[in-house]
Structures are given as C-alpha cells and as structure tokens.
Amino acid sequence: MDYIKVTKENIGAEHICCAISNDRDVQVASKKAWLAERFDEGLVFLKSVERGKCFIEYIPAEYAWVPIDADGWMYIDCLWVSGSFKGHGYSNDLLSACVSDSRAQGKKGLCVLAAAKKLPFLADPKYLKHKGFSVCDEADNGIQLWCLPFSEGAEKPAFKACAKHPHTDEKGYVLYYTSQCPFNAKYVPIVEQAAKEHGIPFKAVHIQTREQAQSAPTPVTTYSLFKDGEYLTNEQMNDTKFLKLAGK
User: Fold this and answer.
1) Is 139 in the same domain as 180?
2) CA angle, 124 as apex, 114 and 69 as ends, to 5°?
3) Are 61 and 111 in contact (CB under 8 A)?
4) Are 125 and 229 members of one domain?
5) 177 pairs with which residues across the strands?
6) 2-13 b/e (C-beta count within 10 Å ≥ 16 → b)
7) Do residue 84 and residue 154 come from a single domain?
C-alpha cells in the first residue's frame, strides 16, 4: 500500500473522508477547512492512495482539541481502516509511521481516546493493548485516555478536571461538537431542526477554538451529547436516532 501525506498544498485535490465520496459535500468542505488550519500546528494527515479508506490523523498534544494535560506527547485524533481494507496490516503501517515521526520529533509517546469496550468513533482498546498502549486516565463517563510511552519514567498524560468529571448545568439536551468530524456539518443542523419541530429542548455548542476545546466539560469534543447535565453519548446522531433517544 502506498501512502500520501496531506498538506496545505495538496489538500484541495486529496480525498480525505472515510465515508463520503463526494468531495463537494459540505461535510468534506468543513473537515478540510478544519484540517487546513491545523497543519501549521504540526497536524499530520497520512492516508492511503485509496479514497479515504485508511488514514491516521495526529497532532502535538499541546495543540489537540481535547482537554488533556500531555505536554511533549503526540495525540492521535483518528486511526481509521475501513471495510475490506481491514486485516492487511494497514493500521500497523499507519501507526508505525506515527511512532517514527513522533520519536524523530522527540516526543514522550503517543496518546489517544478509547474506552474499556469499543465505542463508535473512538480507538479500539483491543488493538491499542496489542500495540503496547495502556490506560493512563479515565473520566467518570468511562472514556479513557490511553498512552504509549517511548521511555520509562515519562510523566503520563491525564484529563483536565473539566473532562474528568463530565457535566453541564443546563437542562434539556446540550451537544458539544467541533468541525473535526465531517458528519457534524450535515447532521447537527438536522438534529437541531428535529428537536425544534418536536418541542425538545436542545442546544448545540459549536466549539470553534482550541482553547474552547481544551476547557470543554467532556473528554470527547468531536461530539458529546448531554441530557439535563448528564453525559449520554459520543455517537453522532441523525434525526431518527435522536428522536428515538428522546422517546419521540
């Protein structure tokens, strides 16, 4: 398998989404705009020559859009291999490239979000364990921070207090999300409209800066849905899923 590093210079021509084939889709445009603003901060998007089927996205943890203390570490936003491309070692290729690059930059190691059991849009804990990662912190909602140190004795990453104890003070449904996940550009407005039509209290908080993300009341900033202050899920919703969740 050959791989391509997406940059500011070639992002316009490269296909970057795992599930959306139309490069003119608003979701793809939203994701590309978010990526383009991160490259100068050290973000790497390495993908297979196949259209969005295998890729890894990572960034120095100081610039990650998650509320963690992990100075000197590399944070993996996403490692994705889909469909028939699974089982051929492509995840290993991509992770190895990330390890090599991070070591060359003098990083302490890698960190990534997961949970004890595989959750949608989070890393697979079985794979992480197989590759030598271990849990270094866990939030009250079961979201875990995993890490792969490059040397013994390195101070391990940890959640900030706001993420360690996910909670909001607002009633009704409150969604925190970023433009990092392309699906949000399409489906957040759809859920907002569905909630409005059914008289369901709903508020969407679009996190638009790294500072906002790093102080968010949730470890998963790409998509976190709360109800009456309590965390519900990180799984992206369409209108049907949301209305079912809300009992409509």
Assistant:
1) no
2) 25
3) yes
4) no
5) 206, 223
6) ebeebeeeebee
7) yes
